[in-house]
Amino acid sequence: MLIALTRGISARIADCELTHLARAPIDVAAARAQHEAYERALAELGCTVRRIDDGGAWPDGVFIEDTAVVVDELAVVTRPGAESRRGETAAVAAALAEHRPVARIEAPGTLDGGDALRLGRTVYVGLSSRSNEEGVRQLRHLLRPHGYQVRGVVPAGCLHLKTAVTEVADGTVLLNPAWIDAALFAGARVIEVDAAEPFAANGVRAGGRLLYPVAFPRTRARLEEAGISVLAVDASELAKAEGAVTCCSLVFPA
Hints:
single chain, alpha/beta, L-arginine/glycine Amidinotransferase, Chain A, 3-stranded mixed sheet, 6 helices, 15 strands, 21% helix, globular
């Protein structure tokens, strides 16, 4: 059984942190409707969806992925790179404690979960504006006893590593080669996003399928041609807040 932790959308989402996008109006009602459809899609893929408190005080609270890195043996609560987001972690830590032993990234380390990509027993961590070398070092120290290798990598031109690359099937990654070097994932099958869809490298694996934005039909065609079953959702309002589909959940085996 898969657990999917989610968090509701704050009425203050328009005050979200932005790094690479210009600020645009966000329709809160539409964003909430899209998020509810996203949660239904997770349930359709076999997840038990648990929405924790709505995080009304936190403009970026819906992007729960950034608050933790969860592996089979442990949940590592992060220290987000944006200071405004550090209060988000308390409720997430409490929810995760029901499922895993909990460890934490401590100052001066910073780490956003959106920078952590697990492929088998290797965890790639993006050294981005949100995650630093000390955060990578601490994650390496915490995961090494459980048999994981942690590797720092450098994405370019995007917020998080998972903006540039995600795993879309066993041994298969979807990536934007302008933002991350495909050679880092030697041994994996690589599907490149369509050049006209630079933000198309982000999808959520669950139940043998891929939850994926409707906004990227050209890349979706490439995925389906590669034999990957896609369940498409509209995440257009959340995209204005520099969010992607992985950002809105923490999915892990019960």
